[in-house]
Hints:
Elements: H1 7-17, H2 21-28, H3 32-39, H4 47-57, H5 67-82, H6 90-99, H7 101-129, H8 142-152, H9 158-170, H10 179-190, E1 193-197, H11 200-205, E2 209-211, E3 216-220, H12 225-240, H13 242-252, H14 257-276, H15 279-288, H16 293-300, H17 304-311, E4 315-316, E5 319-320, E6 325-329, E7 335-340, H18 357-360, E8 369-374, E9 380-390, E10 400-409, E11 431-432
Parallel strand pairs: 1-3, 8-11
Antiparallel strand pairs: 2-3, 4-5, 6-7, 6-10, 8-9, 9-10
Helix pairs in contact: 2-3, 5-6, 5-7, 6-7, 8-14, 9-14, 10-12, 12-14, 13-14, 16-17
Amino acid sequence: MAKSFMGVRVQRLREERGLSQVALARQLGISASYLNQIERNQRPLTLAIQLRINAQFDIDLQAFSDSDEAHLIADVRDVLAEAGMEALSMAEARALVSNTPSVARAMIELHRRNRATAERADTLAARLGDGHKLASFALPGVHDEVRDYLNQRYNHIAELDEPAEAIFNDSGMAVGDVGTKLAQRLAERHQVQVALWRGDDAARQGARAFDPATRTLRLPDHLRPGQQAFQMAVQLAHLELSSTLDRLIRDGGFSSAESMRLARIGLANYFAGALVMPYQAFLQSAEDLGYDIERLSNRFGVGFEAVCHRLSTLQRPGAPGLPFFFVRVDRAGNVSKRHSAADFHFSRVGGTCPLWIVYEAFSQPERVLTQIAGMPDGRHYFWIARQVVSGPVGFGRPQKTFAVGLGCDLRHARRLIYSRGLDLSNPSAATPIGVGCKVCERHACPQRASPSLVER
């Protein structure tokens, strides 16, 4: 394992607990001089001592993990590059993040607020210039705030995952057939009846609508049984876990009413996925099937995208799945979903890389594509991607088309069925990609779309 020098974090732990070096050293069973060397980054924070800290103070070991550093380092370098400042070297960025992670996060948050303010000013100027009346609109950046909240929790919300699994078991639900018991629970406990919209009304009304006056949950008729169950589970989250959602949103420290609204939607959807694909049963199936997404989709009665999203949330302490990253894009390159349970960096500026396999999925519908991707920092990842289509069926009824990607660190690729027959140890087999043209260090890339903000 790489050595972890995290002296400032240990000092911060002492300050928060009001402990002297001698007192903390005594609790950890080490000498005060040894602790002093750790705090001064003269000695690494070993795994054994991290485990003692966890036992003494019940602190998540990920607080002392290097995995979060990769996100912060890349974000800090992105922020400085976009601001037109001299780019930090990797060594400088790592030193900043390792020693003062709170300062690094503050820099990123200040940049996010500045960018949101600038975008809001541009929008106001455009509206006033065109002679339109000033209307209310969502503050730019709220989606990033919700995504950051989920990513900081490694895309795993135990407060929702565990109740979802308990409801699945207590209600006698069966894998792949959750809808029947869900409809029964909604009717018996909440007097809610489920009805289907027919024809074009379903397309106009969206995926789900609840009428509290008639206690009716209306769903589009084009949804498959697993999708219907998902939407019923979303409604169940609002009915049975409202106080939990309130607490998570309150503790999340969201900056606006719009970000809190989006967070509530995201958390309710998280619960729904955890109920339709309960943790232990889903993880065991994933391991048994070599993470074959199409077979998992068939077993649990849900779509390809839903399975990919659920795979990116399996980070329960003591029983984790593979640390996946999940992304969804449209043909124009807009990223509408991105979640990371590990250290892959989705750039905040400059779009994404056109050499990324996720964009190739649009040209080969129905096929699952694979890619070994090499990043400028030397890290290698394994990606799978496929096009997905959703929406009403029938001639002349518009549908939504996306491509979804699921990735993991290359060292985990052998556990995936998709890596069979690939030479995972051959560096030349990797496609050199970046996080986005504006912040990519590959200046000679033939696919470059705009000049890099990062100096040579």
